Please model this.
Amino acid sequence: MPQRAHAADWEVGLRNQLRNTVGSAYRIGEQRGKAKLDVRFSDGTRKTKSLDIRWLQASAGGIQKAVEAIAQGVSVGLTVEEALEAHQGTQKPAPLPTKKVDPNQLVSLFDQWLESLSKLGIVRSDTQFKYTRNRLIQATAASSADQLLETVGDMFPKPGRSKEIRLQHLARFLRWAVEKKHLDAKRWTPPVTVKDVVGIKDKKPKVGVPLQDQEILDLIESLPTDKAGERWKTVLRFLAVYGLRPVEIMHLSIHADDGRLWCDYIKRSGKGETDPRVLKPLHEEWAQMWGLLEQVTKGLDLPPFGGGVANAGRRYLRRQRGWKPLEAKGATMYSFRHGYALRAHQQYGLIARIVARGMGHSVENHNKNYGDWADIDEIGKAYEAGKRYRKRLKG
Model:
């Protein structure tokens, strides 16, 4: 509370003393003859509480002790009310501080939860959960569900799908831990939704920058011929030829029953999950020239993907001269996939339904992102017809 011009000397002195001991977030003033505390939290919210102490010079020492005790309690995870009650001795020892969760316990419980999901067949691939686990390790000092979610949320510079997934994982984990009585329900029950923590995404273009054929060829040709360069050439060739999401490079196989190349990655979102799909090359001559099927058969020699394929690729490409002009115009690791979609519509004349199936997403999502490129009125075309269409264009 702001100081007033007519404040008594003892009031000014008390406020100055508290500013030195507990900081400016804790402010005191008078309300109906008693001391009132106003606490401002880091997210901008506030909490006020009467200390039930007379607003008198003779009470200055008691007010100071009460505020300092509350500040200390809040710092270890107590609410303002709990800290005040503990200071006044009007309740039994607070159970939450005595049961304070050991930092390593949260990670251990997370591993137990993930194992339980795997046994139930709910999680077939734990790659995304590993990313969440890494964030949890960085936030184990949190002492409540809200604090944990806010701490992890602050690790992301802006709202986005990755942030939302991490927070959703943590909320699901906390609900399980509370239900199994591993964590105290009063402190660790997460909110019903994490939308408030995620924030609102800024409006942005529907789709990223697609890479044109010649840009892809020139970029791959420009990469070094050392081991790292050859490995990344392999990754980029697969992304370009088959329109893969970066993570899908780790989920390729040739099925013994049909001899076709499959992507076995399952993407989960709030709208459901994708199915494994057969991959169709565009252009087929690229797949043959680079021997992509043979590489899958022998076992792909891939680079390490610390932090995920997209992030690892971004770090590698940023060091390459051939990537700099592409990045300057907005290209990302997804631009190879965007280029596939552009190629499918403009060079092969394929309809949205067919291309969406080949890329592993819904027609609705495809039209939302690539609608400007798709001729959605031609419902009867398929890949073989598209190849004949392209030959006529070249013809």
